[in-house]
Structure formats: C-alpha cells, structure tokens
Amino acid sequence: MANIKSAIKRIRQNERQSNVNGRNRGRLRAQVKNLTTPLEGGNAEEAQKALPATVSNIDRAVQQGIIKKNKASRMKSRLTRKVNALAKPASE
User: Fold this and answer.
1) What is the pTM of this model?
2) In the chain, how long is the greatest CA-to-CA distance?
3) Ranges of each domain in the chain
4) Dihedral of the alpha carbons of 22, 37, 61, 79, in degrees to the nearest 10
5) Which CATH class is domain 28-87?
6) How do residues 19-48 score in pLDDT, each as one tens digit?
7) DSSP assignment, residue 57?
8) Can you tell me the distance from the alpha carbon of 39 to that of 49, in angstroms, rounded to the nearest whole number?
C-alpha cells in the first residue's frame, strides 16, 4: 500500500476510472452482440434496426477513449458489410 498521500489518491482515481472504462467497454460489447446475434440468426430486419445504435455506440467508445479511431472504423465497416450482405437477396 502506498504511504504518500498523492499516491493513495492516484490509486483511488485509477480504480474509479477503471470501473468507468469497464462499464463502457461492456456496453460496447453488449451492443455489438445485439447486432451479431440477428446476423448469425439470419434476421436481416432486426440487424438493420440494430446497426445505427451499434455504430453510435462505437463512435461514443472512440470519444471516451475505449477503442482507437481506426479500430472503430474497421468494426463499423465489417458490421455494415455483414448487414448489407444479409439484406441483399441471394439471387444477386
């Protein structure tokens, strides 16, 4: 355990911020899962509805520093491609 007052305070701050980051990361993962579940099930309509909320959540995670900008761009691109492929008829 730290003896210095500033170190004790820093430990408290780190713990608090770690909890906040964990909640935000969990929120992001849950939203991505809400989108991937209908994708795996083949439900195009539900996936279309979940996509805007997921993209918004990914953008929010970038602002909060949970993920980096390029990772967010890659995630959004891949998820959008999957949703569009599911929505497109198989004959095309």
Assistant:
1) 0.83
2) 70
3) 28-87
4) 150
5) mainly alpha
6) 999 999 999 999 999 999 999 998 999 999
7) H
8) 11
